[in-house]
Structures are given as structure tokens and as C-alpha cells.
């Protein structure tokens, strides 16, 4: 097996390396020949998607902050208590700003329409004031929050990105709207970071085509309709949630552009790349793909090694475990018993077995079918494991017959364990769908006698079990003396 494993992993290594290298080189040369389609249809949209995802991720933090504010018991209790003293709310909002470094934090009460800000109560929002339309929009919304770009109520000269979160009382009624604001300059810094990372030009455009946010090095037109080349494709950008276009810039360079509507802003994310950057990107991608190929190869080989090892372990488990119940099988009992017997001479100690059987199990199968019987058997094994020690061996001996091998356990203690199992089974009916299946067990207990083998001790436990069945079931009997001369073959008798 080890030799086969090495051979398989070696072959898999060569196949993976050959496949990855061939695929990478073919992709590189194909991309170099068809740069336009590669960039416009694959590379640029992928970059745009990555940037879009990262922007949404950056918005997650203020959303979480606003969510915590909306669920803060202080905020809800303060409103429910009548908004008495203003100072505690103002301190709370100031602490939010200081802790999370937001440019603003606010709460608008739905009872008084007051706009609370760390600097005080700024105003009372009104449905007649267009500036306050955001509040009444959120108020009627079914969504827990919204993100919008607006001027800051505390500073009309500052454009901010707000997360407006609905605050509900303990009965689910609206108490107001709370949240935080992010400075647009922070988003600009994020844009510049993306441009450095991806080597592309990134900016935002509103639904009318105005360039709303861009990096400090942006030198294009203020409206995409006025940009040479891009102006002819502006309608396509502004009327589609996403678009991939190609246009010729004023300096003659071919530019590939990808647009993506960011619903939270109501703006289009524009990502552009010219042909020079495209070639560099493809060469960089070649190197990255090779490194990724090596990394993936290593991961796949590691996974293959683990899979083969687990498969081998699974085969060993299947050879030693009963599939239905999860208990050990007779082969395991033989191995464990032989090991115990071999050590008894140098380490004398009591060894006992419990042979137990489900009473009238045929009636369970007749009433609930074999699926019900299977569930009963599985739960019985769980109960047995719960009542015995971790080092004890639980085996499925026959159809509804089980054997427990207890090392370093005298007969009386084994009998107490068997009684514990019997009481647990009687106390805990098996749940099968809407039915509860009540069963009982009978058990025979025997302690290993000097010089006795597995056949002898199991035969005596079997005789004790038979006596328990014969004298009324739902009981435990302790075997005495040597094995009976005409003991039945355990696992074949139908006790009932």
C-alpha cells in the first residue's frame, strides 16, 4: 500500500504540473494575440468585480456599527423613557464617533422628530423639508437600513456616506433612525489605493454622467458625455447595470472600460485600462498563475495524501465496525480478548462480559418496520456507550444481541453496569417519527474464570441471558460456575 501511494502521488504530481504549465502558457500566448477581447471580456470585468466586492466590504463596518447602535438597549430604553435628559444621548453619540472614528453619529426620534448629534439637537426633521426626505424614506422602508450619499446635516459643505438604520422597540415598533457617516475623502483614499494595487483608473459616475468621486491624479472630463471617445458610449454606460466598452482616448491609446452600478450609492463604478497596462498585467498574471499553479499543486497533493490516508483508515474502520449500529464487530472482540488474555498471567485482574438482547424485538419490526428497528438498535448502542467506560468494548454480537467486554471489572460491578443499561433503556423510549418505541432488555453477566477462554465465558453469559428471558425478561442475571456442557451458540438463538 505505501508503495502504491507513492506511485500514485508521483503520477498525480507530474499530471498536475504538466496540466498547469500547459494551460498557463497557452493562456498567455492567446492573451497576447487577442489582448482586446482578453482585457475587455475577462481581466477587466474580474478586476471590476473585485473592486466592487471590496467597496461593499468597506461599507460593512459602518453597517455593523449602525446595527449595534440600533440594537443598543441604552438607545431603546432612553427613547422609551421619554427622551428626558439629552446629555446621555449626546455622550453616547460622541463615544461612537471616538471609538469607531466616524465623521458623524446621529439619532432621529420618531416621536419628537429631533435630530440628535454629538454637538446637540440640530433640528426637527420635517416631511416638507427636501433635505429630510431620507428620514421619511427610511421610516417607510421595510429594509432594516439604507446607505445613501448626502450632505452632512451638521456641516452642509461636507458630502458624506450615511448608513441609516431603523431602531425598533422590543415589540418591533419603530422608535427612530440611527447610524454613522463616512467622509467622502476616505472613499477617495480607498480609490487611490485600488488604483495603485490594480494599475487601473477608477472613478464613480452618477446616473446623469457626472464624475462624482475620483483619485487625486484624475485628469478626465467632469461628465463622461464630454470625454472624447467615451462620450459616444456614455448612453450605453448610463442605461445598463454593467457594461464593457472600448474607446480611443484623445492621445490615441485604446482604452478598455468596465462599468458596474453600485446600488447602495446609486453610482456607476468605472474601471479603465489602456493597452500598455494590459500587456504588463498579462505578464504579471503569467507569473502569478505559475506561482498559483505550484501552490495549487502542493495543496492538491497534500489533499490527495490526506484522502488516501483517510481512505485507508476508512477501510480499516469498515472491517472492524458494524455499519448499522456503529458498534465494534466480532473481529474486534477477538482481537481485544486475545490481548487481555495474553496479559493476564503477568497482570492478574477481573474481566467480565455482558451479553444483552432486546426483548421481543420481532414485535418492534412488525409494528414499525425495519427502519424503526434500526433506529432502536442505534439508540441502544448510544445508551450502552453512555453507561460504560471509554475503554470498554461494545460489540454487536447478532441481530439484536450485543456484548460488552469490561477489563478490570469484577462480576458484581459488571452486573451493576448491566442494570444501569437496563434502567436507561427502560427510561428512555426511542423516538421514531411521531412514535415513541418503548423497549426492554435482558442481560447475562459472567466473569472470566482462570484458564477460561472466550467460548467459555460467553457461553456462561449466554446461559444467564437465556435464564433472564425464561423468567420474565427485563432483568439481569449473573452466571455462576463453569460453562454449561450443552450451551447454545451465542448470536444464533432467537430469544424473544
UniProtKB/TrEMBL annotation:
E.C. number(s) listed in UniProt: 2.7.7.65
SUPFAM superfamilies noted in UniProt: Nucleotide cyclase (SSF55073)
Membrane topology of this protein: Multi-pass membrane protein
Annotated InterPro entries: dCache_1, Diguanylate_Cyclase, GGDEF_dom, Nucleotide_cyclase, Rev_trsase/Diguanyl_cyclase
Highest taxon of source: Bacteria
Predominant place of localization: membrane
GGDEF domain span: 349-481
Key words of the record: Cell membrane, Membrane, Transmembrane, Transmembrane helix
Signal peptide: none
Cofactor: Mg(2+)
GO terms classed as biological process: cell adhesion involved in single-species biofilm formation; negative regulation of bacterial-type flagellum-dependent cell motility
NCBIfam families: GGDEF
UniProt-recorded name of the protein: diguanylate cyclase
Amino acid at each position: 500500500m505505501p508503495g502504491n501511494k507513492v506511485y500514485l502521488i508521483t503520477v498525480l504530481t507530474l499530471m498536475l504540473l504538466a496540466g498547469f504549465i500547459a494551460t498557463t502558457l497557452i493562456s498567455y500566448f492567446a492573451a497576447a494575440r487577442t489582448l482586446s477581447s482578453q482585457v475587455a471580456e475577462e481581466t477587466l470585468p474580474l478586476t471590476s468585480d473585485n473592486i466592487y466586492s471590496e467597496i461593499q466590504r468597506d461599507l460593512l463596518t459602518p453597517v455593523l456599527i449602525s446595527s449595534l447602535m440600533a440594537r443598543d438597549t441604552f438607545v431603546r430604553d432612553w427613547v422609551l423613557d421619554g427622551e428626558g435628559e439629552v446629555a446621555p444621548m449626546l455622550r453616547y453619540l460622541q463615544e461612537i464617533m471616538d471609538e469607531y472614528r466616524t465623521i458623524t453619529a446621529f439619532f432621529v426620534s420618531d416621536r419628537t422628530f429631533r435630530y440628535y448629534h454629538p454637538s446637540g439637537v440640530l433640528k426637527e426633521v420635517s416631511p416638507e423639508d427636501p433635505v429630510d426626505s431620507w428620514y421619511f424614506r427610511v421610516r417607510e422602508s421595510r429594509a432594516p437600513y439604507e446607505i445613501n450619499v448626502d450632505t452632512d446635516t451638521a456641516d452642509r459643505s461636507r458630502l458624506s456616506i450615511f448608513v441609516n438604520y431603523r431602531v425598533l422597540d422590543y415589540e418591533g415598533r419603530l422608535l427612530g433612525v440611527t447610524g454613522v457617516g463616512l467622509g467622502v475623502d476616505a472613499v477617495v483614499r480607498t480609490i487611490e489605493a485600488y488604483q495603485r494595487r490594480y494599475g487601473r483608473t477608477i472613478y464613480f459616475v452618477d446616473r446623469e454622467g457626472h464624475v462624482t468621486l475620483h483619485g487625486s491624479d484624475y485628469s478626465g472630463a467632469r461628465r463622461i458625455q464630454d470625454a472624447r471617445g467615451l462620450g459616444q458610449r456614455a448612453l450605453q454606460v448610463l442605461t445598463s447595470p454593467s457594461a464593457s466598452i472600448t474607446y480611443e482616448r484623445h492621445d490615441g491609446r485604446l482604452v478598455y472600460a468596465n462599468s458596474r452600478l453600485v446600488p447602495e450609492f446609486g453610482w456607476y463604478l468605472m474601471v479603465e485600462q489602456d493597452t500598455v497596462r494590459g500587456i504588463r498585467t498579462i505578464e504579471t498574471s503569467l507569473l502569478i498563475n505559475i506561482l498559483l499553479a505550484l501552490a495549487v499543486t502542493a495543496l492538491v497533493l497534500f489533499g490527495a495524501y490526506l484522502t488516501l490516508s483517510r481512505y485507508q483508515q476508512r477501510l480499516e474502520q469498515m472491517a472492524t465496525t458494524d455499519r448499522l449500529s456503529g458498534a465494534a464487530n466480532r473481529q474486534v472482540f477477538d482481537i481485544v480478548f486475545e490481548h487481555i488474555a495474553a496479559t493476564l498471567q503477568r497482570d492478574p485482574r477481573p474481566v467480565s462480559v455482558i451479553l444483552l438482547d432486546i426483548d421481543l424485538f420481532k414485535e418492534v419490526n412488525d409494528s414499525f418496520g425495519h427502519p424503526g428497528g434500526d433506529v432502536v438498535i442505534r439508540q441502544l448502542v448510544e445508551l450502552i456507550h453512555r453507561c460504560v467506560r471509554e475503554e470498554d468494548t461494545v460489540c454487536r454480537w447478532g441481530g439484536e444481541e450485543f456484548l460488552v467486554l469490561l477489563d478490570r471489572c469484577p462480576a458484581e460491578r459488571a452486573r451493576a453496569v448491566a442494570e444501569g443499561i437496563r434502567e436507561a433503556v427502560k427510561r428512555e423510549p426511542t423516538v421514531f417519527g411521531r412514535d415513541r418505541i418503548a423497549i426492554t432488555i435482558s442481560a447475562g453477566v459472567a466473569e472470566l474464570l482462570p484458564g477460561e477462554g472466550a467460548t467459555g465465558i460467553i457461553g456462561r453469559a449466554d446461559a444467564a441471558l437465556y435464564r433472564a428471558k425464561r423468567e420474565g425478561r427485563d432483568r439481569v442475571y449473573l452466571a455462576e460456575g463453569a460453562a454449561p456442557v450443552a450451551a447454545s451458540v451465542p448470536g444464533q438463538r432467537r430469544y424473544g
